[in-house]
Design goal:
CATH architecture of the largest domain: 2-Layer Sandwich
Distance between the termini: 62 Å
Domain Gfo/Idh/MocA-like oxidoreductase N-terminal: 4-113
Radius of gyration: 20 Å
Strand content: 15-25%
Structural class: alpha/beta
Shape: globular
Protein name: Gfo/Idh/MocA family oxidoreductase
Number of helices: 13
Length: 358
Amino acid sequence: MTTRLVITGVGGFGRTHLENARRLEAEGRVEIVATVDPAVPEAYGSLGEALAKHPADIVIVATPPHTHFALAEQSLRAGADVLLEKPPLPSLGEFERLLALEQQTGHVVQVGFQSLGSHAIEVLQHDVAAVSATGLWSRTNSYWTRSRWAGKRTLDGRPVVDGVATNALAHAVATALRIAGYDRPGFDAAAMTVEVDAYRVNDIETDDTTSLRVTGPGMPTVTCALSLCAPPELVERTDHAAVVQVTSPQASAQFSYTTDVVTRGDTHERFGRTDLLENLLDHRDSGAELIVPLHSTAAFQHVLEALRVAPPPAAIPARHVTWHGEAGDRHPIIADIERLAHDAAVSGRLFRELPAFT
């Protein structure tokens, strides 16, 4: 029997999920029985309305972070498995409640950290001494005005936590944590220490530039240095824009998680990637192990929680920033941000320990 699929949020990033689902529908693996998005005329206005008319086996939740728990809960209670877009939940409390709902309903949640489907990760996980991630992207004013929840810590009394480490470059954090083993079975994420050092240039509530450090008993240190205020041309250099550096006693490797390329010295190797929806289908059909089960994102959720409860991000002094472009295309560039991020990641220090932005 073909798996019945409902997709929420098709007017935003959910379009990517819709295109992927159409590919699988053409292969006969799924049937898209409904789409949900109040802003899209041909879609249902609510998930409840769609599920009342179209029972589903899988619901893809690709909506704003503060809506994730309610929609995932509704899906699980309706008898569906869930592919939940990242970041999974905007608070640790909601994460723990959703874990309990999985147990109660007997259905599963796969989290949409697509980079964790890369076949390179298994190769990089051996004999790790330290892991660091750098993410240097550029975002314009229009990015922060794209919706009511963009750049917010809370909205209408609910946590959102839409910052650089928790959303835009969340894959950098999640990938580094996985390679370092912080999601391995038996590891208690509550035992790890998360130090955050958050800043902002834009007029937002959350961070657009952040360093963080994660340590755990007997675990490699993970350091991340991330910014959405980098020169736009860096994004075209995919080997520098978003990478995870893995250090081991024998050698070091650099993983471009957006391209699945691992670099060791002058050697570049491209790896394949397993699609997370296909993996969820295989789990349902044959019991294949989920690549990103909800419980495996506990370490990431603890990082998000640390940022959620931290003091508001510090404003970076104007002398460190130049602005370019006009209106919606206007964007900031932090002076020397590429070097600062590299120094933080390589040394394992936070921005304030370099020091930066003084």
